[in-house]
Write a structure and sequence with these properties.
Chain lengths: 405, 405
């Protein structure tokens, strides 16, 4: 990793200085083994903040309220519940979100407008507000509380997703911590991808917003599980300056380092989400090189990683280059057939648009590993992009069709 | 059906007057039970002709040559092979397509430029030209040969798809016949959708082109199996005027009748293709009403019918309205949550954006039938559209991943 960025052990959202978190069981997520379903993340001082949000036209009121609260670039705390998405519930949804942020502000002694809120879980069910309010009262905040929060935001993920990285700046140590829950939809309607990222760096909200958008475009936005998006997808980034390293300004080396470290965190979390998609047993990493534009590279990488035929071929360890090129052909990328090259897990499969004489059994053996890397070179330009997805398994279908029958 | 349009018994591409067809086994499609793999369709007089073609950037040279040959709006015959797609083979592909049309023209005594060609099957394999040329020599053309041609174009479809309709015009009978093969990809790389439609009406190539585009937009372009498109998708329409009913001109009642009848043929074939998608056991018909524009209605209907989560819910007979609304939310359609209404097989599931108190077991029973109708009313405008898809089953995954392992 560039510039002395290191991964820290047991890193989480409370690894950066000045953050505490806690979680409890409010009674919403009765189907899961791990009953934590309500969490608060709090910075001892106010933070600058930025968010990226679902583009779905049916948004949870929790998302709408958080977009309003983060519009001034400031935050102080986050409250999040799992089990119920607070989506498709009509008028009460927005009021319930307001009550949750208000109650959280009350017990923390901060402004309700500085509390952000996320919800994830079943659609079409109202939040049981008295359970939530008494849950909020019970939450104990602790400097290692990030781990409990990471569990509390899960719905169907097999395990929590947490990471922390740090790097030196101006004689101090800057830390970034992140947690996420995946787009697993083993249970019905739990499509939400949530991620919370904290740092003790000092960064203006404008720069934070720009950096988060760039990092999300290279990570969360390059990840597909099954093509469906959610009413609740949210990534939040807070910066409280508690490391005492002074402000990070645009165009400086510090800004570059921070961008790298933030991308590291986001890509790590995105890959974990892809690898643990519902019914998935393999991570697919698709890199498209030699594209005419970045947009074309991204489109091609995403279309290939999301193709049902590519996903089933990976599931069956099938070096089926025809499916990869056919998926490529419906992306936005310019393609000249005679220039195409393709590698699967390092083995040359196709060159100059024609199949190479690869050793089939070797490639099948390579593809039987937990990660399948597909590398396409369009040989038309200088741009590249990477996307992540997962194999499509019989279990995906069984899980997703076994709800009521 | 409007204006006396009737479905004719055993209708096929040789049902309209003046068409003959035939098929043989050339030795390309060795994996199928039914060995026919090479067919010719011939009109005794030259026809006006129009085509719609795959939008995939990697096109088979067979498609490229047919686009060139049909550009003048004229045709006389079609030659088609199954088993090998003539795609991703480099330079020889175009020359082989030329040889196939040239050979066909020779034995029929017509111009090579009036022969259209389609190929479907495995990608990345060159056509065995001597087998094909001796196959073309063997083909016997007959007035009931459409049925053999309908079998010869198949790759993995469980059965041929044929239809014929007729209607009276100027004291004569106009007939339209159509055959199709589906987008089934049980075998690798056989993504192609092909359809051939013939009529004995007399129609200018400009009007024919316009009518075919409109009919395809309401049928083949509203059908999804798994979101992947092919290098070879083609729909061809030929009109030879042999019914003797005189020219059908734009804006006349005859043109309106013909459009209706053509749409009937295309929608029937599209529904059969969707119903027989790989691993599919159910047809999903999604109608979106009350959209602000036709484009928005089409986008919404297509996104819902193609959603993996909707397809698995239908597979499991799960009236999971959350998945339908969430898919709707990522389409191009404007949506106001509080105006949404949703019916599944006639049962009211959601109204004014809120779940209706439907009887769950009754709806599950309704969904256990071979066709699941999803009707969404956006209540925002006057436009509507219908799309067709199929359930996503464990068998789809098994078929598509079981190639080499």
């Amino acid at each position: 990793m560039p510039g002395g960025i290191t991964i820290i052990e047991d890193g989480t959202v409370t690894s950066p200085q000045g953050y505490v978190a806690g979680a409890t069981f409010a009674g919403l997520k009765t189907y899961a083994e791990d009953k934590l379903d309500l969490a608060i993340l709090y910075s001892r001082r106010t933070t600058t903040a930025a968010g990226v949000f679902t583009q779905n036209k049916l948004k949870s009121p929790s998302v709408i309220l958080t977009e309003e609260h983060v519009a001034d670039g400031k935050a102080h705390a986050v409250v999040v519940n799992s089990g119920i998405a607070n989506a498709c519930v009509g008028d009460p949804g927005y009021g319930d979100a307001k009550r949750m942020t208000g109650k959280t502000a009350d017990i923390l002694g901060i402004r309700p407008e500085d509390v952000l809120i996320c919800s994830t879980g079943v659609v079409g069910v109202e939040l049981p507000m008295s359970l939530i309010e008494s849950g909020i009262d019970r939450i104990q905040l602790a400097t290692d509380g990030g781990h409990r929060m990471a569990r509390a935001i899960l719905t169907t993920d097999p395990r929590p997703k947490e990471i922390g990285v740090s790097f030196p700046l101006n004689g101090k140590t800057i830390t970034i911590g992140g947690i996420a829950k995946g787009a697993g939809m083993i249970h019905p309607d739990m499509a939400t991808m949530l991620s919370f990222i904290t740092t003790d760096a000092e960064i203006s909200s404008d720069l934070l917003k720009e950096m988060l958008k760039d990092a999300a475009d290279d990570s969360f936005n390059m990840m597909t599980i099954d093509g469906d998006t959610s009413t609740n997808d949210t990534v939040l980034l807070m910066a409280n300056g508690a490391a005492g390293a002074g402000p990070i300004r645009p165009g400086t080396e510090g800004a570059e380092l921070f961008s790298h470290a933030l991308a590291e965190v986001c890509i790590d979390l995105a890959k974990r989400i892809a690898r643990e998609g519902e019914g998935a047993t393999k991570l697919i990493e698709v890199t498209v090189e030699g594209a005419r534009t970045l947009r074309q590279a991204r489109s091609a990488a995403r279309i290939i990683s999301g193709s049902s035929l590519v996903k089933t071929a990976v599931h069956g360890n099938d070096p089926n280059w025809g499916r990869i090129t056919v998926a490529l052909g419906r992306s936005e990328a310019d393609v000249e057939e005679s220039k195409l090259a393709l590698h699967i897990n390092g083995a040359l499969i196709m060159e100059n648009g024609l199949p190479a004489p690869f050793h089939r059994d070797s490639v099948i053996a390579l593809m039987s590993q937990g990660q399948v890397d597909i590398r396409v070179n369009l040989n038309l330009g200088e741009h590249s992009a990477t996307a992540w997805g997962c194999n499509l398994s019989e279990e995906y279908v069984t899980f997703n069709s076994a709800y009521t029958t």
